[in-house]
Amino acid sequence: MTEHYIGKGIPRIDGLDKVTGRGQYIQDICLPQMLYAKVLRSPHAHARIISIDTSKAEALSGVKAVATFLDTTQKLFNPCPGFVTTHRPDKPVYDQQIFTSEARFVGDEIAAVAAMTPEIAEKAVKQILVKYEILPAVFDIDEALKADASLVHGELTDKNICGPLWELNLGDIKNGMDEGDVFAEATVLLPRAKHAQLEPHGALADWKNGRLTVFSQTQTLHPVKMILARILDMPESRIQVKGAPYVGGTFGAGQGVRAKTELIASVLAMRTGRPVKLMFDRAEDFGVTDTRHGGYITGKLAAKKDGTFTAFEIDTYLNTGAYAGVGPDVALTVGPAGTGGTYRVPNWHYRARAVYTNQQQAGAFRGYGNPQGNFLTETLVDDIARQLSIDPVKLRLKNTVKPGDKWFIPFPCTSTGLNQCFEKAARAIGWDQKRGQTGGGARRRGVGIAGGIHFGGPVPFVVDYDTVYMRLENDGSLHVAAGVAEVGSGAATALLQIASDAVGVPMETAQIVYGDTDTTPFDIGSHASRSVISVGNAILKAGTKLKESVLAYASEFLGVDKNVLRMTDGIIDGGGKEISVRQLAYEAHLDGKSFFVAEQNQPQNSPPWYAQAVEVEVDMETGKVRILKVAAFHDVGNVINPVIASGQLEGGIMQGVGYATMEEMKYLGGKRPITDSYQKYLIPTIQDMPEIEIGFVEEPCPEGPLGARGLGEVGIIPVAAAIASAVEDATGIRFHQLPLTPERVLCGIEEAVMSVG
Question: What is the Cα–Cα distance from 203 to 214, expressed in whole angstroms?
Fold first, then answer.
């Protein structure tokens, strides 16, 4: 395949719409006779509904429908893609309803109103009269795990453990610990964090002629269609899920049904026979939608005197909130990805629990548990290095996983450029010159490093396959249809690059269609760093097949042996003859022939590797941590589009800076979020952005298209651990709790001074 577009920084196909303001989002879509929805939410963390009176709300002029648990399905479900894609016989935890008769967190859905205007809907919601029986509630993990704790889901389980008690083993942990000469132990405390996407959650549903059309911000269009069909008892053929033209960020918040927006809008649309739009305000978005899982992880790492790791034991406790969602899956992922995949540890024991509390649900978030596990792992590795007086980079290089090594991840390590990532990141940050050279004074500098592995797709954990439709139009232009969602990552551009090269047509004449279940084949969605990798392989197969059929016709038409013909950039030549694809396609049309293929791909996992080194400055008088530079080197295989890849990594790094230094959901009495706006919940701004150096280690991946790996999530994962390492280098203090706020760092500095004194 001649590569005209692969590896080049092609501008994004959606770029012009976004920078000119022409791009439409859910908020911008208006349909004739559209109604507006608002949700009544529980003011209590745990309460049973004794009675509910909607008569005053229904009597308001402009109100068209009110829905509660009394007149909607009480079917239990899980709003995440695993609800419809989990391998048999396993199934996710089903513990949610559209509207509940027992509120389990402040903000739980009690009822919803559809009205002529948002103002009327808001007024009507306040007219719904509800009597509650207040029930005991639990707000943190340790409280929830007490023997006499009140149960969040007493009707489903006799304890507050959500899903399985995970216990995974590799080798013999006792023998491994016995072989160790030095040991590092720590417990890391992890905050809840918000996705902080630009666009609040919303959906628009339309019921017409017995068919439901839903405009959604979801990352998983086809699974959402399946979820809606099962909950609403409808044939999938009568449901269309359309992605909004543009989505203002997801970062995992768009996996599955987004905070029930699609369901609630659908129920009201079906009841009224009119389009219904439901949009959250910012406070609502903060208070009721998913967060990153907070909690704590305890670990013990053993090593020989020469630095060889012998054993690693981990216990994970994650706060999944009032409902399961993906909580059990995230608790599982922390283990193999965050603690078991980076280093060669022959004896590894992992235990994990997702724990119910009466707080908002935690869910999928960029990195999917790996930032939490990575923070623990890299903390312990630095501790071993300190104890043995071994350079932390050299210790990592000694212990990294190599192809053929045994690990617990359920697929083999076939290639890795991790050591090169570590070496290049260390060199770029000036490791040998700066490490241990903090100096004195009020402002001290330090450098740190962290690295790891992530999954390049959800295989083999869930059902995953892609189908691509591809046809050559009668003028030789290329049409591609893929079921993946474009949620701002640039995946559509990269996929079109692959398609154009695979077929051999100019990219400016090619078009990719996505984001509509009516016009695209099944795909599980844009998540898990899989879009370009999985769909890209399907496109390669389809493009190769389409090209072969075109060349076969060209061989007959030109009277030239097919094996000597080439098709590149819209021209077919060979054997002394030449014809444009445009002309040939029309000639085929006149002969009653067209070129159309459909190809399916069942992907393998294509894990990316990464290492990031950072330099920080710590103000010893205020505790302020300033990130000066991040040197990020990633083995993402052969890079499809370096501009898009760099943008994804830079965005992930800045999210990591936020997670490490400032982002934390806080609750009043454990119940109601007080961080309900960007004035209260801090995220990095341009003033916080350090110098970022992006580098690629292109170790080809056998499982990815053209040797590529996934990369959407990896930028965020090692940032917190690298920053904590750098802060320790600057101050001599290792912090085990995130985020490293000025207050927390200053307190640590003062405690260290007092202990010395």
Answer: 7
- What lies within 8 Å, CB to CB, of 90 at 6+ separation is none
Per CATH, 15-22+465-601 and 138-191+292-409 having the same topology is answered yes
Of residues 134, 125, 157, 126, the one with CA closest to residue 144? 157
370-388 vs 719-731: helix crossing angle, rounded to 10: 30
Cα(712)–Cα(682) distance, integer angstroms: 23
Q: Which tens digit of pLDDT belongs to each residue from 136-194?
A: 999 999 999 999 999 999 999 999 999 999 999 999 999 999 999 999 999 999 999 99
CA dist., res. 277 & res. 284, Å (int): 15
**Best CATH choice for the domain 138-191+292-409 from the list 1.20.1560.10, 3.30.365.10, 3.20.20.370, 3.30.2420.10:** 3.30.365.10
Among candidate residues 317, 331, 252, the one with its CA nearest the CA of residue 291: 252
- 13-39 pLDDT, tens digit each: 998 888 898 989 999 999 999 999 999
CA distance 17 to 129: 45
CA dihedral (650, 656, 658, 664) positive or negative: positive
Taking the model in full, what pTM does it have?
0.97
CATH of domain 15-22+465-601: 3.30.365.10
Q: How far apart are CA 322 and CA 362, in angstroms?
A: 8
